[in-house]
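I hope you will forgive my troubling you with a question about protein structure. Could you please explain, in whatever detail you think fit, how the structure tokens follow from the sequence? Thank you for your consideration; the sequence and its tokens are set out here.
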Amino acid sequence: MKPTASQRIAVIDLGSNTARLVVMNTIPGYAYRLEDEIREVVRLRQGLTRHGLSEEAIARALFTLRLFKRFCDGAGVETILATATSAVRDAANGPLFVERVRREIGLSLRVLDGETEAYYGVLGALNEVPLSEGIVVDIGGGSAQVSRVRDRRFQQGVALPLGALALTEQFIQNDPPKKSELKAVRAEIDRQLDRLNWLDGDGLPLVGLGGTVRNLAKMEAVRQKYPLYTLHGFSLSRDSVATSIAELSKRTLAERQKIRG
């Protein structure tokens, strides 16, 4: 039987806060292996108004996407799957931005709707963790995807405007934040989650994805003197999350940036 030739495939994820490029060496239908990964802070959502993405944010995104495209060309990547999520999805000038990326860089940027974004998050989680029944939460900069898993399959999911940047821009005006501002954030989270009548997740496992969850895990790993380099499969308790929130909420941004983890 003739072996299937390997291919280099790149995936670009242009998020509200960060942009990520991964290059995979794949044998279609058989296996894949991560070869390269680049992550850049773009803050595409920063300065978003009813008119759309700001020119400064667009310039940062174009610079990063051009960098990714050149890297892929130099690495012999055969297929580039470029996606964008909530910042471009929500922006009034999102379609113009997508067209500009195509015209100036030569990338076809696919804007994912909320349910599709949630689905891909679950697909990634199910390939890594033994989850048969549970909830998957992916907290990004602009949105948070909440999904229900049944029998190891994506049942349904939704993107809610509960990303870290989105909530900060909407409710936080002070540094450190006031108690009233944090209360408003919690109330908005409760309001959005209460709309999900299918979220019957009491007692079910919760799998967390995204930079916000990863940073909380890093903080707890430092407290525990966790010996492993990877945080894949790391368990976070409610007490641990509460401790981290209390620590973060009383510090300024400059102080938060110095916290180990």
Residues 55-74 form the longest helix (20 residues). The chain has a mean pLDDT of 90. The radius of gyration is 19 Å.
